[in-house]
Amino acid sequence: MTAPAVPQRLAAPGPGWTDSVDVVVIGSGVAGLSAALKARELGSVLVVTKDVVASGSTQWAQGGIAAALDPEDSPEDHLQDTLVAGAGLSDPEAVRVLVTEGPDAVRDLIELGARFDTLADGEISLGREGGHHRNRIAHAGGDATGAEIERALVAAVKRAKDIRLIEHALVLDLLTAEDGAVAGVTLHVMGEGQLDGVGAIRTRAVILASGGLGQLYAATTNPSVSTGDGMALALRAGAKVRDLEFIQFHPTVLWLGKSAKGQQPLVSEAVRGEGAFLVDHTGKRFMQGQHELADLAPRDIVAKAIMRQMLATGKDHVYLDARHFGDEKWRVRFPTILASCRSHGIDPVRELIPVAPACHYSSGGVRTDLNGQTSVPGLYACGEVACTGVHGANRLASNSLLEGLVFARRIAAHLADGLPERKEPIVDVRTPGLVDADVVPELQRAMTAGAGVIRSAAGLSEAGATIGKLIEQPADEPGTPGWEATNLVTVASALLAAATAREESRGAHWREDHPDRDDLHWSGSLDLTLPAVAERAVPQATFVPHTEENHRHG
Ligand code: SIN
């Protein structure tokens, strides 16, 4: 299969206004706001966010933030669990950075005002999730950790009067200089006072922290803003995107029926961490004997086991049994999930919770080094949009908030050695393109059927053929729906290129036509790039073996 050809830049009106700052941060979740708070010491900082500031994925994170905070735990143990979950593709050096700098980053967050749940003695209460051999997940408000972290960061950014914030703004494309380095961004602002419509912002550095791509699939835990914008923009700017085939499907997303679409309620792994277990429709526990951690095996293993059970029983969901928690534990430890189940007519105190896997997290993204630098000078990335090498083929539960915090700090520390020179943008003569937003539901169906939990050459090829046709439907006029649709097809095409090329099963990438992990041929990553041609281009996947050298510079 050849992946569909995608536009080289978004069709948009010319900028009606210009502005200039030192650093533009795209995105306002844990990664973006942490980066902005650190970078403000270096120069003028502008945060651009697509909706309102707290609308991204961070606020939905339930489980928590993993860090070796318990004296009985150690960064080394956290490292081992992360490497095992990563199924041989995590960069050990990136993981070492994460686990050693993580505890301080969490303490910084507490100093900033984030309130984690504590025990009677005042110590942070630490929970367990899939793939962790120790209790190391700090949580807040029971199961509302992301919301509390986002609250603390938003409050800190609002206190920092020198950080400018533009809400309801979609960044369209990067402006680049003659040498390919960052010179600025173009963006569209929705009627926010003096800045309205398409504009251009000149800048010395861009920090991409725009989150993930869950809206590629029919059902996802991600909010509606997760349309892969940052990854698509980076590809169009010539950056490398890595490990995109490793899309994590969360095993226990509340099953609301066959036709449920868009953002679905999550039932945190922390529920299994507290002793809930999976059963099929006959009441049989099916995780025992599949992995030493049974129901708490790494996420890819549990998702696959659920899919196998669903195929074997002909059902489209399984159940989570947490009735033994009783009323009080549900109310105190999992108030968000309790409310969400009850709002859908399910009482988890008395009933089994119907669950099925749904798209949750992109383990890959825009390739960075340990300082968050991408392959485009002046372009940095952190959070879900980035591939720092931490997650490999499958992210360990609750490592994502930590990764956002740690690598945002590293980007700011790197920029503190000297902001890049300000550059003049060149005129972009590439042919612009725009896809009709009406194609999105069909795109989501095609990706779910062909590039979901279970994949094969035939299924991927079918998805590619469908999306190839969808790309031919142009939008009548530029606007957010068309820009998002174009970003979605761009990322879909790159994902299909990688998932087709990787002829093995590993981590979150499960090929039923290549069911085994193949370390001899596939111990490495696939880098995706968009060839620099004038017209539409097909994303190219290049295999990068995981030698130590390639981990650092690949
Ligand atoms: C969960 O609470 O199960 C999700 C946590 C995560 O994705 O890391």
TrEMBL record:
Pathway the protein acts in: Cofactor biosynthesis; NAD(+) biosynthesis; iminoaspartate from L-aspartate (oxidase route): step 1/1
Name of the protein in question: L-aspartate oxidase
EC numbers for this chain: 1.4.3.16
Matches recorded under InterPro entries: FAD-dep_OxRdtase_2_FAD-bd, FAD/NAD-bd_sf, Fum_R/Succ_DH_flav-like_C_sf, Fum_Rdtase/Succ_DH_flav-like_C, NadB, Succ_DH/fumarate_Rdtase_cat_sf
Record: active site: 299 (proton acceptor)
Alphabetized Gene3D superfamilies for the sequence: FAD/NAD(P)-binding domain (3.50.50.60), Fumarate reductase/succinate dehydrogenase flavoprotein-like, C-terminal domain (1.20.58.100), Succinate dehydrogenase/fumarate reductase flavoprotein, catalytic domain (3.90.700.10)
Catalytic activity: L-aspartate + O2 = iminosuccinate + H2O2
Any GO BP annotation: 'de novo' NAD+ biosynthetic process from L-aspartate
Coiled-coil stretches noted in the UniProt entry, renumbered to this chain: none
Annotated keywords: FAD, Flavoprotein, Oxidoreductase, Pyridine nucleotide biosynthesis
Location(s), subcellular: Cytoplasm
Domain FAD-dependent oxidoreductase 2 FAD-binding: 22-401
Top-rank taxon, per record: Bacteria
Region (Disordered): 503-522
GO cellular component, one term: cytoplasm
Family: Belongs to the FAD-dependent oxidoreductase 2 family. NadB subfamily.
EC class: oxidoreductase
Pfam family, one: FAD_binding_2
Positions with biased composition (Basic and acidic residues): 503-521
Its job: Catalyzes the oxidation of L-aspartate to iminoaspartate, the first step in the de novo biosynthesis of NAD(+).
Domain Fumarate reductase/succinate dehydrogenase flavoprotein-like C-terminal: 442-523
Cofactor names: FAD
